[in-house]
Amino acid sequence: MEIIRVENYEEMSTRSCEIFVKRLKSIEFPVFGLATGSTPMGLYRCLVKKFQAGEISFKYATTFNLDEYIGLPKDHEQSYHYYMNELFFRHIDILKENAHVPNGMAEDLHAECEQYERLIEESGGIDLQILGIGENGHIAFNEPGSPFNGKTAVVNLSESTLKANARFFKNLYEVPTRAISMGIGTIMKAKEIILLASGGTKAVAMKKIIHGEITEDVPASILQKHKHVTIIADEAALSKV
Ligand code: F6R
Predict the structure, then answer these.
(1) Is residue 138 annotated as part of the catalytic site, yes or no?
(2) By the 8 A CB rule, do 197 and 206 touch?
(3) Each residue of 107-135: pLDDT tens digit?
(4) Which of 66, 82, 88 to mutate to test the pocket of ligand 1 (most atoms within 8 A of CB)?
């Protein structure tokens, strides 16, 4: 695990953007795993800027998002489809068919999960996976107790995640309680992982995943076993490390 300690959110975004761009330029058909939430917004802003400046192209890139709420239509403002389109996809030249987000409205959710997993494999696997981290140590929507070898599946969101994500909805009761999420086993297969963290609300989780024991109670602790992980986190997120 390499840890890059940065001053603030802006620097976290710039540093991750630099690595992302390097992989985008050096891999012929790069496959990226993408996250949503507030953490990677600055990274997407940086990538869009570089695209608009003519420095990069996503024409040969494929992306797979980590997760999507179940029951929110793609045009719902809080769906991850909407988030990705608004913040990233519609501003760049990625081919629509290469930008994958799980379909949380699928009639057969289990078939959707299996197909998503298969698509990732058929793409040759993820070259670079971007991760945020939940206050409870979750990655994607793999909550504490999720199996380390899990594949893409329908998952229940924990109380802590529902509360943390309520800030995006009118109230707590509007937050969907289920999602489709890549599994921890799926994430661990990525050739390279960058975990981003900003702010004091992540400090306890960061301490646990860097110094704590590897346990399914802290999903991100398994990253200690991955051979190419970079943590880019700011002072506040690393204040307990
Ligand atoms: C989002 C995701 C989640 C978030 C995590 C942190 O696709 O998979 O694991 O990365 O909940 O969310 P933020 O960045 O909003 O603090």
Answers:
(1) yes
(2) yes
(3) 999 999 999 999 999 999 999 999 999 99
(4) 66
